[in-house]
């Protein structure tokens, strides 16, 4: 079945550091890929998405490129802020099913210090 | 994107009791989803709820434990029945974006602690 694997956390960075959170996936079809963010005490928010190979999703300075050849969708940001501290989830939606079930990675806790 | 609200936002319950969680969407939607997020864990889909039909449950989840109602196109409830401490989790509902089949938007979640 489909699966998503994220880099082990937690990740601790200083403000203005470069961020990479690795995400790889296994899927039988042609999935859409997502990054969701969960701020402390809140629900999930869609951060960015990509629906086909070589697409780049971007939002709030975060970027991720859909790499079919390496089955990856790594999240990057050039300069993190304290307000980026949150849990980040990589997810895929299997376009082959009738209801587009979301499969999530295990989540990566990011803490950014001033 | 849809705006989703949930009630209650949090609750503390005794084992053996049941809790019904409400999910309200600000627009009519065909499909709604219920997820569970156990402490420190990722999200797991419990079931998919279409208006006018029985909910479809994922492997490991059964209707007797997690009955779902979907009375109209903007509302759904999830009941956690005969609770045990292992049911302590965040329960989230979601719905698909009208313009993008694959994208889901989530409610704020219901934080449940079972003692």
Mind explaining what this structure looks like?
The complex is a heterodimer of chains A (114) and B (115). Chain A has 114 residues and is an all-beta fold. Chain A is 0% helix and 50% strand. Chain A is built from no helices and 12 strands. In chain A, strands 2, 5, 6, 10, 11 and 12 form a 6-stranded mixed sheet that branches. In chain A, strands 3-9-8-7 form a 4-stranded antiparallel sheet, with no helix packed on it. A two-stranded antiparallel sheet of chain A has the order 1-4. The mean pLDDT of chain A is 91. Chain B has 115 residues and is mainly beta. Chain B is built from no helices and 11 strands. In chain B, the strands form 2 sheets. In chain B, strands 2, 4, 5, 6, 9, 10 and 11 form a 7-stranded mixed sheet that branches. Chain B has a 4-stranded antiparallel sheet with strand order 1-3-8-7, with no helix packed on it.
SSE diagram, text form:
The complex is a heterodimer of chains A (about 110) and B (about 120).
Chain A: E1 3-6, E2 11-14, E3 19-21, E4 23-26, E5 32-38, E6 44-50, E7 56-59, E8 62-65, E9 75-77, E10 86-93, E11 102-104, E12 108-113
Parallel strand pairs in A: 2-12
Antiparallel strand pairs in A: 1-4, 3-9, 5-6, 5-10, 7-8, 8-9, 10-11, 10-12
Chain B: E1 4-7, E2 10-13, E3 19-25, E4 31-37, E5 43-50, E6 56-57, E7 68-72, E8 75-80, E9 89-96, E10 104-106, E11 110-114
Which short descriptors sum up this protein?
heterodimer, A: 114 residues, mainly beta, four-stranded antiparallel sheet, 0% helix, B: 115 residues, seven-stranded mixed sheet, 11 strands, globular
Gyration radius over CA of chain A: 14 Å
- The proportion of residues forming helix of chain B, as a percent range, comes to under 10%
Number of helices of chain B: 0
Query: Could you say which overall geometry of chain B the principal axes of the C-alpha atoms support?
Result: globular
How confident is the prediction overall: mean pLDDT of chain B? 92
Briefly note the structural class of the backbone of chain B. mainly beta
Order of helical and strand elements of chain B: EEEEEEEEEEE
> What's the total helix number of chain A?
0
